[in-house]
Design goal:
heterodimer; A: seven-stranded mixed β-sheet; four-stranded antiparallel β-sheet; globular; B: mainly beta; six-stranded mixed β-sheet; 0% helix
Chain lengths: 113, 115
Amino acid sequence: EPEVTQTPSHQVTQMGQEVILRCVPISNHLYFYWYRQILGQKVEFLVSFYNNEISEKSEIFDDQFSVERPDGSNFTLKIRSTKLEDSAMYFCASTSGGADTQYFGPGTRLTVL
Amino acid sequence: QQQVKQSPQSLIVQKGGISIINCAYENTAFDYFPWYQQFPGKGPALLIAIRPDVSEKKEGRFTISFNKSAKQFSLHIMDSQPGDSATYFCAASLRGYSSASKIIFGSGTRLSIRP
């Protein structure tokens, strides 16, 4: 069964450093998302991406964040200058649209020290 | 308006019992209400979903009850098993006919099934 994959599974970084989280969505999907989950809290929407541009973003997704689909398979989330409060689990999701559901990857745990 | 409120925060049920998790929403424009199951170290996975034009949907041991007038919906897990121990999230979306819209999650319920 096709699945969304994410790398790395765990990223540790120093405050102020840049990080790039990588996702490989399901191959025929057209819509891509990043969500995050701070430990013990709910999953929160960050950004949606379609046709090579951002469709919607939340108030969390400020100028420190950016997304990119650099080739036909990868979808990345970049945090330019990490803060302690960016420590969370980041989930990538994708869907083909229509009646399909959004499929979530296993997540990348980001720890900012 | 965009929130989905979920209770309880945690729930312990004996094996074979019924697990019930409740959610409420404010935005009447929401038209898709999924439930996600999350195991430790994994991403949320769709368990079952309902649209507001029906009052109940059943898939195996899992049932969603939906009360449109009260803006509430709940998940019932019949004959709960230890393998059902996970975190459950209710959610809502302004979906229309497309799954492209963002999903708004509830705060989650950590369910433990005692053998």
